[in-house]
UniProtKB/TrEMBL annotation:
This is Choice-of-anchor D domain-containing protein. GO terms for cellular component: cytoplasm. It comes from Vibrio gelatinilyticus. It comes from the Bacteria. It holds the Pfam family HYDIN_VesB_CFA65-like_Ig.
Length: 845
């Protein structure tokens, strides 16, 4: 049981009665360690405590607290301390000081042999001559050694209990990403958690582009259980991350100066260069059209597959005469009898000759705005809906005029269907004519995908309704769209590598070569060199896709790097020691595992997929490709089900960090740990994907808005999948891969990922050898793959890459060239591209 505020002091073993004293200070850590000054690796723990929580110290972690005892006599300090896994040089210390921390006396210490998690009680008398006592607990141990403190009580004889003010204020406050020249305001709440008035004398040290707008706290007495507010502003004048601190000075004897870390990011103004008539057209409008004609869209029925060029902006497209803003609703597109369907690959036998919901597009009712000749969906990212199998992802398209459209304007948009609870993406197109109040039927066609096991064509037309209406924040949406378009990396056809590097004798056929990736299964590919993105691919079963730059592709397991691994390395930079913390302290379900299989497993081990927990080791994919993994994890919709399987499925068979076994469940556990940690640090509204990945990294990189979404569990938890479930545009692939490799985790010179952990991920730290995958000279480290290659020039080197199910490869060549492809025939080779890349610049220096 936890100690109450009336504590018996046992004076000598011969006494038969207890003498009761006043409690001056006590803490059982059930509310955390906020009553203490802390440094290093300090957390709380529920697995090892006398009840509730204990203070948990690792490495050089320590906590201290100064208490006024000037009015007390017969003062004594009691506590309980435990340890685990200590070695000969590791100790846990309890100490006190009566001279303000100038010197300390050891009360108790635990070392090797006292490390079986038993709590040892201690009592220490404090001299009556002392006016204050500083209590300190500290660890002097390694990353796998553990010290625990519980039930700290300071008591003595007093005329009355010394009541003190206690300042309660957040350790940090973030403004997030704010456009340069704009101002954002936030309120910092300063509360008094003590029993006496808290006098706040002043605030100080705020600097940079941060300012105090309204200070209601300085020179103010804050009553017990009350609070005051300080309103702060951030008005960034330059690009990048900014940080400062705010000191709140008060009469709290234990924390006279509370320091709050303040941060924000100055982002580019998306309205810069905004053009009302964006990308106007100057064609005659005379278009020779035999497919998707005005007559077919207005009262006809589209019954045949057509060339994708029927959806494309034609060469002679004229400026549209109408402005589209409002909602498009398709009238029962999921009904039987609507549209056509042809199957090309169905590994799991989803569909037969009978009608099936999979053969129809889902309900559709979405808002659009127009900027010049671009039509922009308001709802971006994965659109959850009532359809049993499909969810939309909508992309911006184009608007134009053709003279044969009876005075109407014409529009087309690319879209994708993503399988519910999965990551397969099927790419489609829609087109229609419209005026200021009405629209034609919508013709749609799906003739390509990135999906190993399910390939089909789906096409037809469906009646539609246009509801003109003003869209909230339409100007912001238009500005954001134009800003993204302006941010895209320059592209050239991949054939231009030959003319841009005339002395290199480049054979562009070796990028995406048919012997390495089957052409009919290649979605897209490209090469990035010297700030130019050379592009290829975009073929479909009905010709080239007309919106190749808007062709949405799945991440599959490249998300293990782009989300889970990147988030872990970001948290390591923000909160040093995070990656070496214990998963049992971050995930209660792991701590509650009855076999204790998750003891001493870290987030670092989890993103390495080297937790030591597995069933089969005959091949590194044996566990991953089991039927149990499909039914117990991948097909499960809710977080609790996914986590329960992930925690309980695999028994401990190896020391954590020593043996690689591919488990998407491990990456899910790493994502859950990061999510729980972020919420503990920043509040329950915080989210590891939205805050750590999107706000901190992807928005500054100008990643597409539709990419700033992820698959999540279908419940109130909405846990990001972590190991798959992202989607990209090809421009995003380059931006994210370049950030990871060429830019070494920096944005505009600002380090965004822990530099040491990123070097380990890129196989550039010889002191941290990677994990052997036991197949084809492959290795794995911090969520990144590599192949150990003898390169042109004769040197042997790791070539890092991201990899995704079905045939997705983002290769970071040693000469700051990026080669990538997205395909779906289980082909993963890039040896020819590796050889060809050396012609651009040498690998071996």
């Amino acid at each position: 049981m936890k100690l109450s505020t009336l504590v018996p002091i046992i004076i000598g073993s011969a006494m038969s009665a207890s003498v009761y004293a006043d409690v001056i200070f006590e803490d059982n850590f059930d509310s955390g360690v906020s009553n203490w000054d802390s440094s290093g690796n300090v957390q709380t723990d529920s697995s090892y405590s006398q009840a509730g929580l204990s203070a948990y110290l690792k490495e050089t972690g320590q906590i201290s607290r100064t208490v006024d005892i000037s009015s007390a006599n017969n003062v004594s300090l009691s506590f309980a301390m435990a340890s685990r896994l200590l070695e000969d040089s590791d100790y846990c210390y309890a100490e006190y000081s009566t001279n303000g921390g100038a010197t300390y006396s050891i009360i108790a210490s635990l070392g090797n042999g006292q490390d079986n998690a038993t709590f040892y009680p201690s009592v220490q008398a404090i001299s009556d001559s002392a006016d204050s006592v500083t209590i300190r607990f500290r660890a002097s141990a390694g990353t796998a050694d553990h010290c625990y403190i519980d039930d700290v009580v300071l008591q003595g004889d007093m005329g009355q209990v010394v009541e003190q003010p206690v300042i309660d204020v957040e350790d940090s406050l973030s403004f997030g990403s704010i456009t340069i020249g704009n101002q954002a305001n936030k309120t910092l709440v300063v509360a008094n958690a003590g029993q006496q008035p808290l006098f706040i004398s002043s605030i100080s040290n705020l600097s940079g582009d941060f300012a105090v707008l309204n200070d209601q706290c300085s020179n103010t007495n804050v009553a017990a259980s009350s609070a005051c507010n300080i309103e702060l502003a951030f008005n960034p004048q330059s690009l990048g991350t900014q940080s400062t601190s705010l000191d709140v000075n008060s009469n709290d004897p234990a924390n006279p100066t509370a320091t709050v870390a303040i941060s924000g990011y100055g982002s580019q103004d998306q309205s810069q260069g905004y053009i009302e008539n964006y990308q106007p057209l100057s064609g005659s409008g005379v278009v020779s059209r035999s497919e998707l004609t005005y007559q077919q869209l207005n009262g006809g029925n589209v019954t045949q597959l057509v060339s994708n060029q029927a959806f494309a902006l034609p060469e002679q497209a004229a400026q549209p005469e109408h402005q589209f803003e409002g909602r498009i609703t398709l009238n029962n597109p999921e009904s039987a009898g609507v549209g056509q369907f042809t199957e090309h690959e169905d590994t799991y036998r989803y569909t037969s000759n009978a009608d099936d919901p999979r053969k129809h597009i889902p309900p559709f009712s979405y808002d659009f705005v127009q900027t010049g000749t671009h039509l922009i969906p308001v709802q971006r990212g994965i659109q959850l809906n009532s359809h049993e199998y499909w969810e939309y992802i909508l992309e911006p398209g184009r608007v134009w005029k053709e003279t044969s459209d009876n005075g109407k304007s014409r529009a087309s948009i690319p879209f994708s269907l993503m399988q519910k609870n999965s990551n397969c993406v099927h790419n489609g197109l829609m087109t229609f004519t419209f005026d200021n109040s009405s629209m034609s039927d919508v013709a749609y066609q799906i003739a390509s995908e990135t999906c190993l096991y399910y390939k089909f064509d789906m096409w037809g037309s469906v009646a539609a309704t246009y509801q003109p209406q003003s869209v909230t924040n339409s100007l912001d949406i238009k500005q954001a769209h134009q800003a993204y378009e302006a941010s895209k990396i320059q592209t050239k056809p991949i054939e231009e590598l030959v003319s841009d590097f005339p002395s290199s004798n480049i054979d562009v056929a070796n990028f995406g070569h048919s012997s390495e990736v089957s052409p009919e299964h290649m979605t897209l590919y490209g090469v990035f060199v010297d700030d130019v993105h050379y592009v290829g691919g975009c073929g479909t079963r009905q010709g080239l896709h007309p919106y190749c730059e808007r062709l949405r592709v799945p991440s599959y397991s490249t998300a293990k790097t782009a989300l889970a691994g990147t988030a872990s390395m970001r948290l390591e930079l923000l909160y040093p020691g995070y990656m070496q913390s214990d998963l049992t302290d971050l995930i209660p379900e792991a701590a509650a595992d009855p076999e204790g299989d998750w003891l001493d497993v870290t987030p670092d081990n989890a993103i390495d997929m080297a937790t030591g927990n597995y069933r089969l080791s005959s091949g590194y994919l044996s566990d991953e490709y089991s039927t149990a993994n499909d039914t117990g994890f991948f097909l499960v919709l809710d977080h609790n089900g996914k986590l329960d399987y992930s925690v309980s499925r695999y028994p401990r068979k190896a020391q954590p960090g020593t043996f690689f076994n591919y488990h998407t469940t491990d990456t899910y556990i790493a994502t859950v740990a990061a999510q729980n940690f972020v919420k503990a640090e920043r509040g329950q509204s915080a989210d590891v994907f939205a805050d750590i990945i999107v706000n901190d990294i992807w928005k500054p990189l100008n990643v597409d808005l539709g990419t700033q979404d992820t698959r999540r569990t279908y419940d109130s938890v909405a846990m990001p999948f972590g190991g798959y479930g992202l989607t990209y545009l090809r421009d995003d692939i380059i931006k994210i891969t370049k950030f990871t490799s060429i830019d070494r985790g920096q944005i505009n010179g600002q380090q965004m990922l822990d530099a040491a952990e990123l070097e380990i991920a890129l196989f550039a730290d010889p002191t941290s050898p990677p994990l052997d995958v036991r197949s084809d000279s492959k290795y794995y480290s911090n969520s990144v793959w590599s192949k150990l290659k003898t390169l042109p020039g004769g040197c042997e080197q790791h070539v890092p890459y991201m990899s995704g199910y079905g045939g997705i490869q983002f290769v970071m060549l040693p000469n700051d060239v990026i080669y990538y492809y997205v395909s779906d025939n289980n082909e993963f080779a890039w040896d020819l591209a590796l050889q060809e890349g050396a012609k651009i610049s040498p690998y071996c220096q």
